[in-house]
Amino acid sequence: MGRVKPLHIFKYKIMAINVNTVYQTVLLILNKEQRGYMTPVEYNRIATQSQLDIFEQYFEDLNQQLRVPQVDLDYSDRQLSIDEKISPFKTFGNCTYSAGTWQLPTTDAYSNTILYDGQEPGASQVSFYKLGTVTYNPSIGLPVELQRLPRSEFYNIEKSPLTASTKDFPTYLYENKKLYVRPTSINQAGNITVDFLRKPLNVRWGYYSGSVGQYIYDPTIYNPSLLNKGGSLTSSITTPLASGTAGTYTPTFTGGSGNGLTLSAVVTNATTVSVNIVSPGTGYAIGDVITINNGQLGSGSQNPVITLKASDFNGGSTYGSTNFELQESEQTRLILKILLYAGIIIRDPQIVQAAASEVQQNEINQKS
């Protein structure tokens, strides 16, 4: 029983759509004639849903295009164009063998990002979406693609030596997000790898509050374990300043599990200081104790101790942003999707109608 090996998966590098550009455009349209305003929390949820809507539509569009003849010219092949849009989400990983079954990969092999399945992922976490090719990697010889079978065939073919699965023609059953592989002698670490699609990252427009309470965009790339660039550590001071001298400083310090952190400190009087993060560095963790060296906040100063807490990191704050992962060509479609949801939230039928009409027309143009 022969099989056709699928074409190699190419990983396209595609420029992402800037989360701030889309937000500012949406706000501009919504604020015209004072129709309404969308908060960052509303925007992040709607933007994530809109991106997912467009992402899931790719598979229906590709299925439709596979049934019609294509123009064999550069930039005009719609099948290739849709596949290119899906390509940033293609990845692979190693399965783990346990008690007779193979568990799906727990990391994205391209980025080594932990996969979260069954729960809503955070802004820098990805989740398993669709299973692709399953491959057996023998210790000697070339990799072999496994054939996927439904439950009835999977068990019935094992009843005859003529049809039973072998290492040359292995099979698998995919149920409950687990792989059941035959023959069962395929059970060594690294034997099974899978190609799969991951979901897009959750969109995040990060911000901090300005002097009058306004939202100011934070372009720092979001990571839940990254300290807040520009954030204040003043509330995390656990041992107060003593004998400081008024002024602005860039103090040295000891402690902490990471490296690369740069601080700035403003001393108002001998016992009052504010400390801010200039550069977040990497590798720091909640509970790390950072002690500013003596004499760094004025001659003879006895300096404060800072104990890092959850709110000092991106995961416990509004800092840090995550851009859309769609192609830049999808920006117009994306804005219209967001406006459609925004019109529902602010109960403006005019926005809903206009956005829905544009979305429908764009979809007709892409498929006709």
Task: Tell me what you see in this structure.
α1 packs across α5 (331-345), α2 packs antiparallel against α3 (78-86) and α5 (331-345) packs antiparallel against α6. The strands form six sheets. Strands 2-3-10-9-8 form a five-stranded mixed beta sheet, with no helix packed on it. A four-stranded antiparallel beta sheet has the order 1-11-6-7, with no helix packed on it. β8 (147-148), α4 (151-156) and β9 form a beta-alpha-beta unit. The radius of gyration is 27 Å and the shape is flat. It is built from six helices and 20 strands. The two termini are 39 Å apart. The protein is of the alpha+beta class. The chain has helices at residues 19-31, 40-65, 78-86, 151-156, 331-345, 349-367, and strands at residues 90-94, 96-98, 101-103, 107-108, 113-114, 128-136, 144-145, 147-148, 171-175, 178-182, 192-198, 207-209, 215-217, 237-239, 247-249, 253-255, 262-269, 272-279, 289-292, 305-307. Helix content is 24%, strand content 23%. It has two domains: 19-203 and 325-367, no CATH class; 223-316, no CATH class.
Q: What can be said about this structure in brief?
A:
The protein is an alpha+beta fold and 368 residues long. It contains six helices and 20 strands. The protein folds into two domains: 228 residues, no CATH class; 94 residues, no CATH class.
Provide key terms for this protein.
2 domains; five-stranded mixed sheet; 6 helices; disordered N terminus
